[in-house]
């Protein structure tokens, strides 16, 4: 592959990132368009250690230049980030490149932040593509501000690039398989009380479904944590399971934004630190499950979560704009949780009970374990929820003339679709949200309602 590659400029800086395990990422690059010299690579990040496929610096530069060729006439709105996906079969690599405008040395330039993977990792990477892109988009927002202030963007980008490398390395070894065997979950127990208390299991699954299938499972015993992780993954699609991660027995992973279900271990003192910013930046609200003390808490519903997320994002970018130096960047807020106090601020007790999950759990344990009956019954339950979500969407479309009128008949919807219990409504709404993003905000109106205000409003119907 080295033949025909341009020589690497000695001015290009290179960082080696220490990653535990084998990182499927070959390299990450930051390049820009120089009006005199054309595409130029500013920085290269590579994982440290032996790799099955190695790219020389010249090859990395060639691939990075490839992503900027033809971008000189790029026309996009100010602040826009274009995502381009290249599959170069002749080189045996895939390149995910984010193209954006930024200021370098006082001039506006077209820039590209790219990650390079072997083509053999295409099936592994595709389910994680949205997670990586959304995280890189936000770090680019911060980087553009840093560039406009005349500071070095590399320090800002390096933080997220390192985290992306560690995420991909952890998913390579500890991701949940596409097909989860029910024998490895709580639903295979002879009795509901074998592995965990029945009410705890009911609340955990119900809240998991109410938060669009996003949960973080925390505990001290890795086997117990992973069993709950696999159980919750039974209620996800195969693609969503590939975006879920088991906990590591020897040492704990850190929380990663964007994963659907992830298992995390507490430290020797029985506590775990959740990063406030990363939890808030998850695409959906999250359920917090502690298997040591059997507690379940959840974040506010989707429309509140989106509002809080965007408000925090704006405040974060404003704070960065007012910062004069890298040392003045405020530290990331951390949420501390231990076995005695569960004051997560962002989380609240599960406010609503349901009948859908309660009936499912009661009935599934009536079936004989060890056979395929429980798996079949689970598939029918998920199909039922999916059809209820489609029916709810069609109902709202008809009532609002496909969004032309505001939705005003929540009480009628709950009666007509037999969703009188708030928990049942929340579960079906969460399924529908993933089918039609923004449904919560459309139905519940003003997104800045707090959960208490929303409950008061619902009580008035």
The dominant shape is globular
Into which percent range does the helicity of residues fall? Answer: 40-55%
The low-confidence runs, each spanning 5 or more residues with pLDDT under 50, are: 6-10, 336-344, 447-452, 455-461
Helix-strand pattern: EEEHEEEHHHHEHHEEHEEHEEHHHHHH
Number of extended strands: 13
- Rg from C-alpha positions? 24 Å
The number of helical segments is 15
Strand order of the largest sheet: 1-3-2-6-5-4
Instruction: Tell me the distance between the termini.
Output: 68 Å
Mean pLDDT: 84
Q: Total domains, how many?
A: 3
Report the β-strand fraction as a percent range.
15-25%
SSE-based structural type: alpha+beta
Largest sheet: 6 strands, mixed
Can you characterise this structure?
The chain is an alpha+beta fold and 461 residues long. The chain has three domains: 13-174, 2-Layer Sandwich (Beta-Lactamase); 182-349; 368-459. The protein is built from 15 helices and 13 strands. The chain has helices at residues 57-68, 122-125, 129-148, 153-174, 198-210, 222-233, 238-241, 276-280, 302-321, 356-364, 373-400, 410-416, 422-435, 439-444, 451-459, and strands at 13-17, 27-34, 38-47, 82-88, 93-104, 107-118, 215-219, 261-265, 271-275, 287-290, 295-298, 334-338, 348-349. A six-stranded mixed beta sheet has the order 1-3-2-6-5-4, sandwiched between helices. A five-stranded mixed beta sheet has the order 8-7-10-11-13, with helices on one face. Strand 4 (82-88) and strand 5 (93-104) form a beta hairpin. Helix 5 packs across helix 13. The longest helix has 28 residues, at 373-400. InterPro entries: C9orf72. This is CI072 protein. One of its GO terms (molecular function) is guanyl-nucleotide exchange factor activity. One of its GO terms (biological process) is endocytosis.
